[in-house]
Amino acid sequence: MSEVQTLINEVSQKIQALETAQALYSRQLSPDFNTFDYINTDELGLSRILASLLDPQGSHAQQETFLKLFVEHCLPTIYSKLNWQPFIEHLDKTKVKLEEHTLASGTQRRMDIYLRYQVGDDSYGICIENKPYAADQHNQLIDY
Fold first, then answer.
1. Distance (Å, rounded) from C-alpha 144 to C-alpha 142?
2. Of 2, 79, 87, 98, which cross-links 124 as Cys (Cβ 3.0–4.6 Å)?
3. What is the pLDDT of residue 103?
4. What is the pLDDT of residue 65?
5. pLDDT tens string 84-125
6. Residue 64: which of 41, 85, 93 has the closest Cα?
7. Which residues contact 70 (CB under 8 A, 6 or more apart)?
């Protein structure tokens, strides 16, 4: 038998084994099911997903795990800033808000996701601007 025929036979056997496995286990594994087919992927839909994952009180029950990873990967320099230590030490108390208005600049812009921790008179905030399909608007970062 030629090498090509041997290869065709091997591939055919593996395809048959895969089809058998799918027939036997598809009810348990749902190999063709994808939850992302049901998710709204516009800006607000994506913000809801991110906010839910970053929320230490979120239904994911992972407490501050995702928020900690976010801070470690996206804001690593925050760990070296002494004034941010209360925030780092209390990630589990962070409140997550969607479409929060900025008041400091007087522009009434809305932050897509706002992470906030308040301890006494000290307030810590991280703004996440979600831009999957648009560019920054004029003075957007200054206004935040």
1. 5
2. 87
3. 64
4. 93
5. 999 999 999 999 999 887 766 566 777 889 999 988 888 898
6. 93
7. 54
Q: How many residues does the chain have?
A: 144
| Token reading at 85 | 């230590």
Q: How far apart are CA 110 and CA 100, in angstroms?
A: 5
What stretches in the chain show pLDDT beneath 50?
Answer: none
Examine the domain organization and report whether 49 and 16 are in the same domain.
Answer: no
Same domain for 132 and 75? yes
Q: Based on the domain organization, do 55 and 123 belong to the same domain? A: yes
Q: What are the DSSP calls for 60-100, one per residue?
A: T--TTHHHHHHHHHH-GGGGG-GGGHHHHHTGGG-EEEEEE
Domain hosting residue 9, numbered range: 3-33
